[in-house]
Specification:
The chain has about 450 residues and is an alpha/beta fold. The chain has 3 domains: about 10-65, MurE/MurF, N-terminal domain (Udp-n-acetylmuramoylalanyl-d-glutamate--2,6- Diaminopimelate Ligase, Chain: A, domain 1); about 80-305, 3-Layer(aba) Sandwich (UDP-N-acetylmuramoyl-L-alanine:D-glutamate ligase), CATH 3.40.1190; about 310-460, Mur ligase, C-terminal domain (Protein-Tyrosine Phosphatase, Chain A), CATH 3.90.190.20. It has 15 helices and 23 strands. The protein has helices spanning about 35-40, 65-75, 95-110, 140-150, 165, 190, 195-205, 220-230, 275-290, 295-305, 330-340, 360-370, 390-395, 410-420, 450-460, and strands spanning about 10, 20-25, 45-50, 60, 85-90, 115, 120-125, 125-130, 155-160, 175-180, 210-215, 235-240, 245-250, 255-260, 265-270, 310-315, 320-325, 345-350, 375-380, 405, 425-430, 440, 445.
Length: about 450
């Protein structure tokens, strides 16, 4: 690592030690500029601010954008790790977690040691650096984790890049090998306000960062907008992409995919199920080709991939239960459509919506559930600081036929009710929490896994 004139960098004044650099960030709930005096008293060597704070001190440096400065400093402090790694950044509303797991598997099978950073964990091989962190960490943690993975032997890192992270410049100063766009549908409007703002946040990955390749979903309307912005500099995947989906078959056993790339036809098989997997698989396979891997290595990578909480299946007495993370109207619809194809008799769906998040998507999710499911069980997700009854009320506003609805605000009881009352040939989709092992209520995270309830009822 290159020498750096500081012992540490932080945006948290509580962490400041003698000789550290403190960067004041104006956050959504707390403004770091309020803690400049505390940082100086603790012996900060430099303090970066972006507005006047009424303190005269030679250690205070005023800059235009402290978020950018934090990213630049963190990158320098950890020795510019992304310059020595092939970093793949995956952004979009749905599919990020599955796509990053696929890419990790493909590259590792192809002999390229690859780390993964995302919603579920940050890991390299068997070493897990962190569970259940942010989808994309703050700049110091981001560059630090890249450095740790590099030191531990990684040659590449694939990461989910959230819209919040792009808006807050958490990955600033990163050199990407590949940037990848999956799709865009309604989510996070509590933060972004409008779909246009949400889109503009995603666009930053392609417009404000250095990359060798950009990969875009050609079949997504927002993908088309990104392509217009990039003016032919990107590669595409999809039914009309540079890597073209020719045919896709999916069943309970898995999927088969036929593709065309650079004039050649390729076939792949995977344990992943669902029509939406055609895009996750295609995007990941294109990454494999761009890394110079042969078809057989890529096939090994996609053959069997475990993505916790993404279309996890359990069966008992002719009933099929599916646990999935789908928590947006678009994702819920895609998973319901797939589940419907596997259903011989009735399709049940058990879901809620997160509290203190985008309220406008709740009735949309209710409408989607009513359209595709035969029985709709509305329950709690992570109510956070909201009352579950209010969230459920918002969901019900999108449902016209309340005769097919059962309301049970206790999630455990709702799942049990659906599993116990379903008959042979029925499919029960339990949506919204996927890999999560907690339920957040009034600031407390209680241990809870949808999968555990299924295993308990099915006795598997």
């Amino acid at each position: 690592m290159s020498p750096f004139p500081s012992k540490g960098i932080t945006q948290n004044s509580k962490e400041v030690q003698e000789g550290w650099i403190f960067v004041a960030i104006e956050g959504t709930s707390v403004d770091g500029h309020q803690f400049v005096k505390e940082a100086l008293e603790k012996g900060a060597s430099l303090v970066y601010v972006e507005k006047d704070i009424g303190i005269q001190d030679p250690r205070i440096v005023k800059v235009e954008d402290t978020r950018k400065v934090l990213g630049e400093l963190a990158n320098e402090f950890f020795g510019k790790p992304s310059q020595n790694l092939k970093v793949v950044g995956v952004t979009g509303t749905n599919g990020k977690t599955t796509t990053t797991h696929l890419i990790e598997s493909i590259l590792n099978k192809g002999g390229i040691p690859t780390g993964l950073m995302g919603t579920i964990y940050y890991r390299f091989r068997e070493k897990v650096y962190e569970y259940e962190g942010r989808t994309t960490p703050d700049p110091v943690k981001w560059h630090q984790t890249l450095r740790q993975m590099l030191n531990d032997g990684a040659k590449a890192v694939v990461s989910e890049i959230s819209s919040h992270a792009l808006d807050q410049k958490r990955t600033w100063s990163t050199k990407f090998f590949i940037t990848l766009f999956t799709n865009l549908s309604q989510d996070h409007l509590d933060y972004h306000g409008t779909m246009e703002n949400y889109f503009r946040a995603k666009l930053r990955l392609f417009k404000e960062y250095e990359w060798d390749y950009a990969i875009i979903n050609a079949d997504d309307p927002y993908g088309q907008r990104i392509l217009e912005e990039l003016r032919g500099k990107a590669l595409t995947y999809g039914k009309r992409g540079d890597l073209k989906i020719l045919d896709f078959q999916t069943s309970l056993e898995g999927s088969r995919l036929k593709l065309e790339w650079q004039g050649k036809t390729f076939e792949f098989s995977s344990n992943l199920r669902g029509d939406f997997q055609a895009y996750n698989l295609s995007a990941s396979i294109l990454v494999g080709f761009l890394f110079g891997l042969e078809r057989d290595a890529i096939q090994e990578g996609v053959k069997h991939v475990l993505v916790p909480g993404r279309f996890e299946t359990f069966s008992k007495d002719g009933k099929l239960a599916i646990v999935d993370y789908a928590h947006t109207p678009d994702a819920l619809e895609k998973v319901l459509i797939t589940a419907k194809k596997l259903t011989k008799k009735k399709l049940w769906v058990v879901f809620g919506a997160g509290g203190n998040r985008d309220k406008t998507k709740r009735p949309l999710m209710g409408s989607v559930a009513e359209k595709w499911a035969d029985v709709v069980v509305v329950t709690s997700d992570n109510p956070r600081w909201e009352e579950p009854e209010e969230i459920i009320g918002d969901i019900l506003k999108g449902i016209k036929n309340l005769n097919k609805v059962i309301v049970q605000k206790d999630r455990r009881e709702a799942i049990k009710l659906a599993l116990q009352n379903a008959k042979e040939g029925d499919v029960i989709l339990i949506a919204g929490k996927g890999h999560e092992d907690y339920q957040e209520i009034k600031g407390i995270k209680y241990p809870f896994r949808d999968q555990d309830v299924v295993k308990e009822v099915f006795n598997v």
